[in-house]
TrEMBL record:
<dbReference type="GO" id="GO:0160104">
    <property type="term" value="F:tRNA (guanine(26)-N2)-dimethyltransferase activity"/>
</dbReference>
<dbReference type="InterPro" id="IPR042296">
    <property type="entry name" value="tRNA_met_Trm1_C"/>
</dbReference>
<dbReference type="GO" id="GO:0032259">
    <property type="term" value="P:methylation"/>
</dbReference>
<keyword id="KW-0819">tRNA processing</keyword>
<keyword id="KW-0694">RNA-binding</keyword>
<dbReference type="InterPro" id="IPR029063">
    <property type="entry name" value="SAM-dependent_MTases_sf"/>
</dbReference>
<keyword id="KW-0808">Transferase</keyword>
<dbReference type="GO" id="GO:0008033">
    <property type="term" value="P:tRNA processing"/>
</dbReference>
<dbReference type="InterPro" id="IPR002905">
    <property type="entry name" value="Trm1"/>
</dbReference>
<dbReference type="GO" id="GO:0000049">
    <property type="term" value="F:tRNA binding"/>
</dbReference>
<dbReference type="Pfam" id="PF02005">
    <property type="entry name" value="TRM"/>
</dbReference>
<comment type="similarity">
    <text>Belongs to the class I-like SAM-binding methyltransferase superfamily. Trm1 family.</text>
</comment>
<keyword id="KW-0489">Methyltransferase</keyword>
<keyword id="KW-0820">tRNA-binding</keyword>
<keyword id="KW-0949">S-adenosyl-L-methionine</keyword>
<protein>
    <recommendedName>
        <fullName>tRNA (guanine(26)-N(2))-dimethyltransferase</fullName>
        <ecNumber>2.1.1.216</ecNumber>
    </recommendedName>
</protein>
Length: 430
């Protein structure tokens, strides 16, 4: 087998010579911004992200995805701090901006920047050369189909701490090879941009890609995250592992669904976080159904009749979307690096804090859109903060959703939510 490194075809067996062998060169993450100073701007460098200049050329690039890249860099830096080393495989690197940031900001010891389009080579090499020369051995550029490059390293028993697969649509064909090439305890950062499948408009497509038959639900964008996590969980179980979600991020501009998962040894033999989700159009409540409830699914508002108003999707990940402690570590690191408040909006801080609130174990899957509640009750909805405060006073858990700005994640049933809203409106009117 041959592969291309910065334009030179070499046998796959020579990959090993590009890995750093001196463990003493590994540094832990400090409390300040990584010590990388960009060189003076050169012609062709027409973008800046977190102080790093780079060129995109003709490669696909979304400026709006910078937040997803911020989250990935923070996670990679924490991994190096906790383990002492960081080897990154950027399987679909495009212009190389993620690889550049893993090198410069996360201080990765070694990065493989792979993209199947060989025409991007000069742009990728030019960008990465701003961190270190290729002769230093900290990075390598390859041009292979993503599965081939990952399985090539797997066959060499050369594993990675962090694998970023920023794929397009619902291409899940990379999942198994990515899991196989990841170290135990390593981090897998995966992507879906298939809003049609998460919205329940292509159920046979989601079934083929992620093993989940997804139907339309009012919180479809959260379903998209759970569909993606569930697909990885299924592949990991097949290989004898299980995964832990560290954060799950939705961005509307793609839409983009990005999840960071830690790979753990051993299967989990119960399926408490992998089952079915139901939404009842009649009462507006959602339900979780386990595998042993199949054939007995109904909603409490229509028992003992068959619930014709109940829509069921799955199997999906039904467990936590985030790890609150891990998110707080990310937020603290972002503060140490001076990333918080630098844009005048604190958007990254707000996002992470909302994710932390979403991590409350009392909160179920899904969320209630205030417009949906108001339509059911035929009222104007009270302010979101006021409604959340009233829910807390009545003993319910409630938080904002980072996915939908005008929605609440809560364990309060829809009927009770409507009653609380009416009470607030009556008090306001009085």
């Amino acid at each position: 087998m041959l592969f291309t490194i910065t334009g030179v075809c070499q046998p796959l067996s020579s990959l090993c010579s590009y890995f750093p062998s001196n463990s003493s060169s590994i540094k832990s993450v400090g409390a300040k911004v990584p010590s990388f100073t960009p060189e003076p701007r050169e012609s062709g460098y027409n973008n800046i992200e977190r102080g790093l200049e780079f060129s995109t050329g003709d490669a696909f690039f979304r400026r709006e995805s910078a937040t997803g890249r911020d989250l990935g860099v923070l996670a990679a830096s924490l991994h190096k701090r906790d383990t002492g080393g960081l080897r990154v495989l950027d399987a679909l690197c495009g212009c190389g901006i993620r690889s550049l940031r893993y090198l410069a900001e996360a201080e990765a010891d070694f990065v493989v920047a792979n993209d199947g389009n060989e025409e991007y080579r000069s742009i990728i090499v030019e960008n990465l050369s701003r961190v270190s020369a290729v002769e230093e051995g900290r990075w390598v550029v390859t041009h292979l189909e993503a599965n081939r490059v990952m399985m090539g390293y797997y066959l060499q028993k050369s594993f990675f701490d962090f694998i970023d697969v920023d794929s397009f649509g619902s291409d899940s064909s990379f999942l198994r090879s990515a899991i196989s090439t990841l170290k135990l305890g390593g981090l897998l950062y995966v992507t879906s941009t298939d809003g049609f499948s998460s919205g329940g408009h292509r159920p046979h497509h989601s079934l083929a890609a992620y093993g989940a038959y997804v139907r339309p639900m009012p919180y479809s964008n959260e379903v998209g995250l759970r569909m993606l996590i569930g697909g990885v969980a299924r592949e990991a179980a097949l290989l004898g592992y299980h995964i832990t979600p560290l954060f799950s991020y939705y961005a509307f501009h793609g839409p983009v669904f990005r999840v960071l998962l830690r790979l753990n040894r051993g299967k989990i033999h119960d399926s408490r976080h992998y089952g079915y989700i139901g939404y009842c159009h009649q009462c507006g409540n959602s339900h979780e159904f386990s595998w042993d409830q199949l054939g007995q699914i109904s909603c409490s508002c229509s028992i003992p009749k068959v619930s014709n108003s109940l829509v069921v999707s799955g199997p999906l990940w039904t467990g936590p979307l985030h790890d609150a402690a891990y998110l707080m570590d990310m937020l603290n690191l972002a503060k140490q690096w001076g990333w918080i408040g630098c844009d005048g909006k604190d958007s990254l801080e707000k996002l992470i804090k909302v994710m932390v609130d979403e991590s409350d174990p009392k909160l179920p899957f899904g969320y209630i859109k205030l417009d949906q509640m108001a339509s059911r009750a035929k009222i104007n909805s009270p302010p979101l903060k006021t409604l959340m405060s009233a829910m807390h006073q009545k003993g319910y858990a409630a938080s904002r959703s980072h996915i939908e700005t005008n929605a609440i994640k809560t364990n309060c049933p829809m009927t009770e939510c409507i009653e609380i809203a009416k009470e607030l409106l009556n008090v306001s009117a009085t």
